[in-house]
Write a structure and sequence with these properties.
It is a single chain. By secondary structure, the protein is α+β, with helices and mostly antiparallel strands. The chain contains 1 helix and 6 strands, in the order ββββββα. Helix content is 16%, strand content 32%. The strands form 2 sheets. Strands 2-4-5-6 form a 4-stranded antiparallel β-sheet, with no helix packed on it. A two-stranded antiparallel sheet has the order 1-3. The N and C termini lie far apart (29 Å).
């Protein structure tokens, strides 16, 4: 479990508070870039947790295992008007 650091406003993160915890389990990560919407940090390394470019978006964490905050992100995915 790691907290999100919101970097930009995006429909996927509507209703998500800065610092909400999400379930991460991967050993690989995406670097922070111009398309980063939210980051997280592990052992001092900041990485992209949510990215979006045009009509494509992705999360590094498992929203389906991230309790209410994760369910909110899944709901936002379903309602996203790209």
């Amino acid at each position: 479990w790691n907290s999100l650091i919101l970097k930009k406003q995006h429909q996927l993160t509507e209703g998500i508070k800065d610092g909400e915890y999400m379930y991460f389990v991967h050993s690989y990560y995406a670097p922070v870039c111009d398309f980063t919407v939210a980051t997280s940090e592990y052992v001092g390394v900041e990485f992209s947790a949510v990215v979006s470019r045009e009509n494509v978006a992705a999360t590094q964490f498992h929203p389906e295992k991230s309790q209410q905050a994760g369910l909110r992100i899944l709901k936002n995915f379903g309602e996203w008007k790209c």
